[in-house]
Amino acid sequence: MANEEDDPIIQEIDVFLARSLLEKLYLFQYPIRPASMTYDDVTHLSAKIKPKQQKVELEMAIDTLNPNYCRSKGEQIALNVDGTCTDETSTYSSKLMDKQTFCSSQAASNVSRYAAAVYKKGELHLTPLHGILQLRPSFTYLDKADAKHREREAANEGGDSSQDEAEDDVKQITVRFSRPETEQARQRRVQSYEFLQKRQAEEHWVHLHYYGLKDSRSEHERQYLFSQGHGLAENTELIKSPSEYLMMLMPPSVEEENDKPMAPSNVLSMAQLRTLPLADQIKILMKNVKVMPFANLMSLLGSGTDSTAVLRCIQQVAMLVQGNWVVKSDVLYPKDTSSPHSGVPAEVLCRGRDFVMWKFTQDRWVVRKEVAAVTKLCPEDVKDFLEHMSVARINKGWEFMLPYDEDFVKKHPDIVQRQHMLWMGIQAKLEKVYNFVKEHLTPKKQEAQSAHALVVSGEQRVNMAKAKVKQNYGQLEKDFQKQKADMKSNDTSAKMDVSNIHIKEEPVSDEEPMDTSAYEGMNNGIVNGLHAEDSTDSLNGHLPGGCIDRVAQELKAFVSSTFRKQFVLTLSELKRLFNLHLASLPPGHTLFSGISDKMLQDMVLDTGCKQILVPFPPQTAASPDELKVYALWEAGDTYDQHRQVLLEIFSKNYRVRRNVIQNQLSQECGEDLNKQEVDRVLK
């Protein structure tokens, strides 16, 4: 009360809110003018505005007659900008810098607390401001002067060149086809600085008319700064309680909140995380960590969290690998997204990452080249998959980053069994998509997952092998002596148990017999395809004459039919097809007598095929059997000559362009082949 008596109210003023110029009134802040430009003699030559950007550009005249104006400097600037010629495009038509351009920028992003006030006859009239613009000098004329200078230099350099140099040079151009733009790429492009600058440049200028301070139109517009009616209906905003009125005068600052540094969108504090539902907490944690033991997950979720509920939620966003939880691929690569490296859609990425996860369920080690060969994805995508769940080891491959969690597997066998069934389903899908070879589908024993890696040196391996030989030598010697005694005691005409002895005689050759051990299990009680109780005339590798002929006929029939279908085969592929053919034959077939690589290759050459010495690069990783290429030389059809020319081409180079092949075929065969005929020969 004492303070109020010391500060008495002198006068009460009525406040009115004017709406006539609402969202139309701007405040311009001019810079300090030079002495040659005063408030009284300023002349606005032109004005224009971009309403959406609230950007204004004003052009003002400079008093060139003012004694403070440097005429020589003004002439020099005009000469640099426009040169010696004067036309409609000249910036300074008077050959003198007689005007200055000002461009605006927003002084404040939030102008809701600012208003223009007019006091008249004891009344204060307020009009809210729509924007506050600061005007600064524009120096675009200097850019124009630099451009003129570069043009003159280019013209001088071009004038010194000869007539030959003046001709247009042939330049190589690169044509690129853009990929379909994803939604994420489009959002990044829209938010880029270049795109925003382009959008701002596309908005057209709206030219304005400038009216001076004493103009009648200006006087008429100034009347709109006063409230048109004093009724309460038009000034309800001012009929507020003291606290509401104070809030209107001093609203909370939005700028201060915006100035605070923002955390990344993918970062949450633990306090914020624990306010979310349990399923969302687990999803966010797994998406960021990617691989986590169950015990660590429980510790992050805080005390009191039900482990049963966590197990129910974790199975929705992660899969069990090596007893640890790995986030699912569709969580990391949602639908309608694509790879940032190759643009591959999310469906293909999920399939490739599932293959990597499945490989780690079989073994602790994965080879990157093997994954790339199966999934056919780019190296960057494969590396991302492996970095999610493994660590690279020099000269070894990629090892799963966490040890095998035996505690979780023992405590939750039902979860482990359910996850195993899920992996069986994923394996079946991957097998259909990628056409796995046998070694990819061979599961490793569960105990191997928990075993620690054992490093054995070369010397230790040699010592272990020597010890094993010494251990087995005595037993082998006893077996041999017993077998030798049995052979002497039996009559030469008696039948012998061929299941104990299998000796096959072959022509002298350095090559090893072909490996058909994969199919030994198919011949139950069979030796070389013959039952033990059948005739044993082929003892010690000696086959009857008729049997030898039947083997040659069957082998020749197989080779002929195979090359009639495929024309060109490597030795490795031919052996694979032969093994498949053996698997389809009934027990006791003559081809089970044993076929070596040399016999197979000799039969290929006898059936009219030739070996093509393709010059593969020396750094190739192919095996020797893959480097041996055989082709059918004469098939008896109309394309024999074309096929022979094509094989001669590939005997000189392992990679040839299509147009070279077509030209060579036309020259050698004396006829022009169309595209369909060339495709048929190549196929």
Helix content: 40-55%
Structural class based on helices, strands and sheet pairing: alpha+beta
- Order of strands in the sheet with the most strands? 2-8-5-4-3-9
> What would the principal axes of the Cα set say about the shape?
elongated
State the distance separating the first and last CA atoms.
106 Å
Major sheet details? 6 strands, mixed
Count of helix runs: 29
Radius of gyration: 45 Å
Low-confidence stretches: 162-166, 255-260, 443-454, 491-543
Query: Count of DSSP E strands?
Result: 20
**In percent terms, what proportion of residues is strand?**
5-15%
Mean pLDDT, to the nearest integer, reads: 75
Would you kindly provide a written description of the structure presented here, covering whatever features stand out?
The chain is α+β, with helices and mostly antiparallel strands. Among the domains are: 141 residues; 165 residues, no CATH class; 138 residues, no CATH class. The protein is 45% helix and 13% strand. The protein is built from 29 helices and 20 strands. It has a six-stranded mixed beta sheet, with no helix packed on it. Strand 6 and strand 7 form a beta hairpin. Helix 15 crosses helix 17. It starts with a helix and ends with a helix. About 11% of the residues have low confidence. It holds the Pfam family RPC5. One of its GO terms (cellular component) is RNA polymerase III complex.
